[in-house]
């Protein structure tokens, strides 16, 4: 009977220590999740702000073609 009581006490101590350790990991994972969400929201808002400017820049580079002879081109005589 004493052995069983001792085992239950140790089991309760183990459970409380395990809960304390897992609780701190749970808080840590929640903090990481929040930080990740903030970073993703920041990237999305940055993308929304700069989307038009980047699109105009890309279209300007693609559509504004200036034909010219490459400096390394040699005319064969």
From TrEMBL:
MF-aspect GO terms: proton-transporting ATPase activity, rotational mechanism
Annotated InterPro entries: V-ATPase_G
Keywords: Hydrogen ion transport, Ion transport, Membrane, Transport
Region (Disordered): 1-50
Broad class of where this protein is predominantly found: membrane
Biased composition (Basic and acidic residues): 1-14
Subcellular location: Endomembrane system
GO cellular component terms given for this protein: endomembrane system; vacuolar proton-transporting V-type ATPase complex
Biased composition (Polar residues): 16-28, 37-48
NCBIfam families hit by this protein: V_ATP_synt_G (TIGR01147)
Function (record text): Subunit of the V1 complex of vacuolar(H+)-ATPase (V-ATPase), a multisubunit enzyme composed of a peripheral complex (V1) that hydrolyzes ATP and a membrane integral complex (V0) that translocates protons. V-ATPase is responsible for acidifying and maintaining the pH of intracellular compartments and in some cell types, is targeted to the plasma membrane, where it is responsible for acidifying the extracellular environment.
Subunit structure comment from the entry: V-ATPase is a heteromultimeric enzyme made up of two complexes: the ATP-hydrolytic V1 complex and the proton translocation V0 complex. The V1 complex consists of three catalytic AB heterodimers that form a heterohexamer, three peripheral stalks each consisting of EG heterodimers, one central rotor including subunits D and F, and the regulatory subunits C and H. The proton translocation complex V0 consists of the proton transport subunit a, a ring of proteolipid subunits c9c'', rotary subunit d, subunits e and f, and the accessory subunits ATP6AP1/Ac45 and ATP6AP2/PRR.
Entry's family note: Belongs to the V-ATPase G subunit family.
Protein name, entry field: V-type proton ATPase subunit G
Organism: Sus scrofa
